[in-house]
């Protein structure tokens, strides 16, 4: 799947179901099938299918084989295919407990299944499988990389960095390890290391998954146009529907962040059409439809997303949507579910302190939010944590300290290059409380320029604050 980014097939991807090398040649030829959604998505991106040399369509790989290639080449896999792969590998390691490669593949599949379904019960299984692989063969790049992926899924970025660096020591040319390290460095707020790691990754290859990873780094550095172009290339080059759907969902998120609702909705809808299990795209539909005033459709999209991928942040978004509609009781139901799901995730080793801190700051106990987020900042000082901690401090009445973190989250010089309407809104509201009228006005206006629809509850507050601040006075005009 990621042929451009590899010099040769990985050990796992080149095995057949009996665990022996499969030396059948790959068929490189492809033909154009059709434009996606009438050329509306990604500027008429074309889908590709493999064909045999005699002009007949190539046989579609079995579901387990498709998932095996996806898992071992770092791209999203379809959930039904993952289930088949897990069943196959569970049987394999039961019959051959010394098969380190199969243990590593099984662990990686569990991680992906847990991540895609938001079912943390898969993560302890993944850890057991990956450690079994390492027990059989200690310097095992596949299992070490799997441990990095597991740590990232649990939001333990320090552990992810350590496992990822160990995997690179075992195999420097294993390109699939580099995306795990980029995620880890980003979560730790080490954006220079993330950029260096991306540069190394781009030297190894330029396939769809590499381009998608580059898009994430570009977005974090405020380079939205570059991010959109990289995602367009990634989606155009993706071979499997689940992979293409994942990149379309990310393109939809980028469009949403810049307030382009119609484009975002097209991306999200096409992603769900290609992969009905793409629940992040369903949540994106809910977010976008709410901003478009299509409330009933928005509520249905959120409910469907939560039914299959019960992430606490989706419950928070749905609760805030209910709140904006004056449905306080329905909102409280979602907030209770958020706490329950966060507790369940914690039992599987997942760190949900960031979303819990954000929730408590706006809807619960602000002092509790500050305590949670201070601890999180010491562990993982990324930009998202800086923004959340700054806002929690503001809600707790500690605005001078709050502004320090809000500046970290929004000043490019301090690493806050992400163009986030929410982050800028938080800074503006903190400055307003500190009677810094000029900066407050500028940042609240900027938040609404970045995305006029960024939150159903906060946009009206930003507009009301701007009206209260009024027009700028001569003292607000900066000197030459």
Largest sheet: 2 strands, antiparallel
Strand content: under 5%
CATH-defined architecture of the domain at 369-476: Alpha Horseshoe
Structural class: mainly alpha
Q: Return Rg in Å.
A: 23 Å
- Give the N-terminus to C-terminus distance in angstroms: 55 Å
CATH topology of the domain at 369-476, by name, is Serine Threonine Protein Phosphatase 5, Tetratricopeptide repeat
Question: What sort of overall outline do the alpha carbons produce when their principal axes are compared?
Answer: globular
| Residue share in helix | 55-70%
Q: What is the CATH C level class of the domain at 369-476, in words?
A: Mainly Alpha
Mean pLDDT score: 87
The ordered H/E elements are EEHHHHHHHHHHHHHHHHHHHHHHH
Are there runs of 5+ residues with pLDDT below 50, and where? Answer: 1-58
Total beta-strand segments: 2
The strand order across the widest sheet is 1-2
Give the CATH H-level superfamily of the domain at 369-476.
Answer: Tetratricopeptide repeat domain
Number of helices: 23
What does this structure look like?
The protein has 23 helices and 2 strands. By secondary structure, it is mostly helical. The protein has a domain at 369-476: Serine Threonine Protein Phosphatase 5, Tetratricopeptide repeat (Alpha Horseshoe), CATH 1.25.40.10. The longest helix is centred in the last third of the chain and has 20 residues, at 328-347. The model is unreliable at 1-58 (pLDDT under 50).
In a few lines, what is going on in this structure?
This protein is mainly alpha-helical and 480 residues long. Helices cover 66% and strands 2% of the residues. The termini are far apart.
